[in-house]
Write a structure and sequence with these properties.
heterodimer; A: 349 residues; mainly alpha; two-stranded antiparallel sheet; 74% helix; globular; B: alpha/beta; Rossmann fold; 2 domains; 26% strand
């Protein structure tokens, strides 16, 4: 393997950026088909919104925000997956390893059960409670780790898995105590879906997410050192505990925000960094930004399938299926699991 | 300390304790200078690695100080310390697919705060230490594809890329075959004597220590038993009570004196001949 040069760096990053750009360009043209608006109609409407208000609305008020939300969620999950895999020195670590998704889900379920209707700065109570739940889990883990001389990754992992199991049990309790209608909403929420009401709505998380992205990607060189082991990185001037805490805090805040707005969407954080490691190597300078960009593109494309799949199945079977979209989490699993298994086989060879 | 206040590395009455053994390491006093190669030797659990970690600043002593060029280690900012002192643990992580050249360049980390890539000067340093450690031929291979001895030399190269004046190595030859043991110790000796660095090596091999190191620090049960030249310290009369093994000496054809542990008579009887 050749050492990383600025040329190879720029080429790899450029390829990933191109893919994201492609998704952004194609985004307004892809959605449920009965509207009859394709790629060309969408961009023609963009040039002249007054002449084609319906086309413009469908392409840029419905589809485009959804693509943007999927991109943000995918970028966050791909990046945090890569960071956690390095941080825990474990390829199975994902953005949800520390129990963030279970904590977030518990928060959301409680909000649904209580029928909370309040809104804060345009954030629904379900999203708010999900975020609070996700962050509380991390808070509890830090409380657990506080005062320990050094937190090893194994103990952190176990604490996170245990917290996740506890939250799952509490989720069952809340579900058990709910009405049928509430249970339906809960199950729907836990499937993870990308739904956005408006462009403004889809960009609400962006400031928090963007800060986390920048911080985590800026830590790439430190994470490279961290790979060499705690002691080597410490004697090279890295504050190992500080690095671990910074990664956990920023990755968790960002993931919490995504769980709050999209639910627990799986497999992006697990599969995308694995693919990047296999293709580009484990140098964090490349691994982090490329996992982010590919994660964004992967999730946006999965979300297109989620919107189109039922229509296609209807065409094949000759029956008109409901026009509803699939939950995005279902599609990431259907696409992600085979890819992951193939990669595992290749790795084991 | 008074005779050499500007020693490169001074261990000034260092003590250290674990939660269950609060007075484990008894005060250790040593003065180490550039151009010297020290071996820390002693039985398992004597405190060799603990002492090395105290000297590297990875652990804080219960009392006493580590002095680097006369100033307290704790007062030196971590990155500056990393430009003066490098540490290599026993069995460093080697199972990841990074190109060897990049692993060596990672040693430049303390010298570059910003920027994603090392500059031409960094690459020159990396090239030089790879030549010194004879790892240049692996530059494009991944670390995980190398054998134990080759990977160890790459790790030494990476530590050297920090351009430290002090190099601390924890059992660098453990699990290496004879040829690599010799090549590592020859490298250590070269670094000390020709490059005027201070190299401190934790090792179990008394004969390699005697042959390649200029100074020995003998630990037993957290207590510093002796410091001095190999000829002064590595004598049967000093080693026998420490290791609980009878020691003999012999001379090889080229006149090198070697220590030979003696099999005690009762054990000898148990060995089928």
């Amino acid at each position: 393997m050749k050492p990383l040069t600025p040329t190879r760096y720029a080429a790899s990053l450029g390829a990933c950026l191109f893919l994201v750009l492609l998704v952004v360009i194609l985004g307004p043209g892809i959605g449920q088909s009965e509207s009859g608006i394709g790629f060309l109609e969408a961009w023609r409407a963009w040039l002249d919104p007054d002449q084609r208000p319906t086309d413009y609305n469908i392409a840029f008020s419905l589809r485009f925000p959804r693509t943007l939300l999927a991109l943000q969620a995918g970028i966050t999950l791909g990046l945090c997956g890569a960071v956690f895999q390095i941080l825990f020195r474990n390829p199975l670590a994902t953005p949800y390893t520390l129990g963030i998704s279970s904590g977030g889900s518990l928060g959301a379920l409680v909000a649904i059960r209580l029928g909370l209707q309040l809104e804060l700065w345009g954030i629904t109570s379900v999203a708010l409670c999900a975020f609070v739940g996700a962050v509380s889990v991390i808070g509890l883990i830090f409380l657990f780790a506080r005062g320990l001389r050094r937190l090893t990754t194994t103990e952190l992992l176990l604490a996170g898995v245990t917290m996740g199991l506890f939250c799952s049990a509490m989720m069952m309790l809340v579900t058990y105590l709910s009405t049928e209608r509430q249970t339906f909403d809960m199950v729907r929420w836990m499937m993870g879906s990308i739904v956005s009401i408006s462009l403004q709505d889809s960009l609400m998380n962006l400031p928090l997410l963007a800060i986390s992205w920048v911080v985590l990607i800026a830590l790439a060189r430190s994470l490279n050192q961290y790979m060499m082991g705690d002691e080597i990185s410490a004697t090279r001037g890295i504050n190992v505990n500080g690095l671990q805490i910074a990664c956990i805090v920023f990755a968790s805040l960002a993931t919490g925000a995504i769980v709050a707005s999209c639910g627990p969407i799986g497999f992006v954080g697990l599969v995308v960094p694995q693919i990047v490691v296999l293709v580009l190597g484990r140098d964090c300078r490349l691994l982090l930004p490329c996992s982010a960009l590919l994660g964004g593109a992967f999730l946006a494309i999965c979300d297109w399938f989620a919107q189109l799949a039922l229509g296609w199945m209807g065409n094949i079977s000759g029956r008109t299926l409901s026009s509803a979209t699939l939950p995005t989490g279902v599609v990431t699993a259907i696409v992600g699991v085979p890819i992951f298994l193939v990669l595992l086989r290749r790795r084991a060879k | 300390m008074s005779d050499a206040p500007q020693a490169l590395l001074g261990l000034d009455r260092l003590t250290y304790g674990f939660p269950l053994r609060p007075d484990f390491l008894k005060p250790v006093l040593a003065t180490m200078n550039a151009g010297e190669c020290w071996a820390i030797v002693g039985p398992n659990g004597a405190g060799k690695s603990t002492l090395l970690r105290l000297a590297a600043g990875l652990r804080s002593p219960s009392s006493g100080r580590v002095l680097i060029d006369g100033s307290d280690l704790r007062a030196i900012p971590p990155r500056e310390l990393a430009r003066r002192l490098a540490f290599l643990p026993q069995n460093p992580q080697s199972d990841f697919p990074l190109p060897v050249a990049d692993v060596v360049l990672m040693g430049r980390f303390p010298h570059r705060r910003f920027g994603l890539f090392e500059n031409a000067a960094d690459r020159m340093v990396a090239d030089e230490v790879m030549a010194l450690t004879q790892t240049r031929q692996f530059a494009d291979r991944t670390l995980s594809s190398l054998s134990g001895g080759e990977a160890q030399r790459v790790h030494v190269a990476s530590a050297l890329a920090q351009q430290p004046s002090i190099l601390l190595l924890d059992e660098p030859t453990a699990a290496l075959d004879l040829q690599y043991q010799l090549s590592i110790f020859e490298l250590v000796r070269t670094l000390a004597v020709e490059r005027q660095k201070l190299v401190v090596v934790v090792t179990h091999d008394l004969n390699l220590a005697a042959r390649f190191c200029t100074h020995i620090l003998l630990l037993h049960d957290g207590r510093c038993i002796a410091t001095g030249t190999p000829a002064d310290v590595l004598k049967p009369s000093i080693l026998e009570p420490v290791y609980g093994v009878r020691m003999g000496t012999a001379s090889t054809a080229d006149g090198t004196r070697v220590l030979v542990p003696q099999v005690s008579p009762e054990r000898q009887g148990a060995v089928p001949s």
